[in-house]
Structure formats: structure tokens, C-alpha cells
Amino acid sequence: MRFRMFLLLIGASTSLLKADYINVALNSGTYGVGCGSITIDPGEPCAYSPNVPSTHKSVDLATSAGMIKGEAYAAYGVNKVFAQTSGTEYAQASSEWMVSYSVNGLPLGTPVNLTVNIGFDAFVSTSGPGEAGFRIVLNNESLVPLMDIFTTTNGFGGDSCYTRPGSTLPGACAGAHGGILSRTVTAYAGMRNLMTLNVGARAYGPALSDGYHTAWVDSIIVPDGVTWSYSVQSGNPLQFQYSQPSTAVPEPSGEAAFAAGAVGAMLILARLKLGHVDRQSLPFGRQGVSGR
Fold first, then answer.
1. Domain count of the fold of the chain
2. Distance between CA 122 and CA 82 in Å, rounded?
3. Which of 25, 45, 99, 216 has the fewest Cβ atoms within 10 Å of its own Cβ atom?
4. Does residue 256 fall inside a structural domain?
């Protein structure tokens, strides 16, 4: 079975809701043990929570097929996901938010190009026939994700990751990944604009996808003379600001891209113990919008 196709557990349905929201979802199950599927949180996989400053879900199960762990957290501008399996199981975790905003200072409807910089820090690994992936999708553009990492030790599969162009051999994309991703988004002056970010982790046993070290909005660069405002949010959770020297790198390719994530990568490696995450290094005390 190839588990590379990853369903964003929230995106398509909740993006139709035109109010700010935060959502997280977990889904998991087992294969090949004759017990069917085990779904976390039966019924609705996630709860629609409008204007709630944070949402979190976690699961830690021992099944006849092995261990399943999953965790997802979201705040406006911050996403954390974690999925781990030890046998013939699968786990998916998804974190998403949507924020409505306006840009002003120009005639109504004038296109305004914004530079959106997203930081991320993730680790993926597999063993046996395992497969693991990590994905970031901005504004529901699932066909052109901001980041996509897939690794497998299945000899019939192949790896792919934006951070290591040309790495296709099984296991080539395993390990730590991190950096600042940059994409231009067009908003329209004087009108209500929407921004969403969906971050997902998936694992098919035995595998680990740890994005709990966070994806976050590093900055959104606004042209001089243009102001911004939020429809609902207070403060500045999406980090709107004027032009400044940027360390952002283009996505999805570039041999030297993601050098900025080297320090974060080493931090992740330091947290790993025998291929498993030390959960003590992931305190929920860092959950605030400014915490990463």
C-alpha cells in the first residue's frame, strides 16, 4: 500500500466558512490485523471552533498492531503536528487556521502583492515498509503546496522533498528539515481578504513525522504606503510589517535553500532518542501565538 496520498483532514470543508477559525484533526487506524479501522474521536474528526485562541488534540493508543501517537495544535499564525506509528497502522494530524484581513490606502480593488514568509521545523523517519510525510498548504493551494516532504524505506517507493531537490532514493529525505518559505500572495485594497494555512503530518508504520517544533508565520511584508487591519483578530498574529531585509528563501527548489533551518535541524536531532521523540521537549507552555 502506498500512503503517499495525504488527505488534508480539514481544508476543503471549513474553508467554505467565511469567519476566522481554528481547527485541528486526528485520524488513525490499523491494517492487516482483521480488526478494521480504529478512528480517533468517532463521528466528527474535528470540532469547528470560531474565534477560539487555541485548539489542541492528542492521542496515545496501544493496538494489537502496535502503537499510535498523534498530536495537533493550532493558534492564529502557529501550527504544530505530530504523527507516529510502530506497526501496521497509520496516523494523520492536521492543523489549520483562517484569518480575514484588509489592506488599505489604495483605490478599492487595487491588487496588492504581499510577501508571505512561513517558517517551519520538521523531522521525518521510517523503518521497515514505513512511510512518513509533512506538508504545508497556503490558501488551500493543495496542488502547489508550500512545502512537501515524503520519505519511505519501502524498496518499491521513492522519496521526494522540496528541501533536497533530486533526492528520490528510499530514505534520502529522512531527517531534519527547516527554514523560511516565501510566496507572493495578492490581496485587494479595501476588500475582505482571507488567508489560510494547513499543516499536516502523516505516518504509516513504522514511521515518525514530527512537525511539533512548529510552523509559523514569520512575516508578511506589505508595500510602503499600504496599511492593514484584521476583521476579527486583535494584535498582529500574522506579523504584517513593512519592507525589511529578508532571509526568506524561494520555494520549492534551490540547492542552497533552507540553510536558515540548519540550527533548527540540529535542535531536532538533539531531541531524538533512538528514533523516538522525547515528548518532554515539547511543553505546551509554548502554545501562545508568539511562542514557537
1. 1
2. 9
3. 45
4. yes
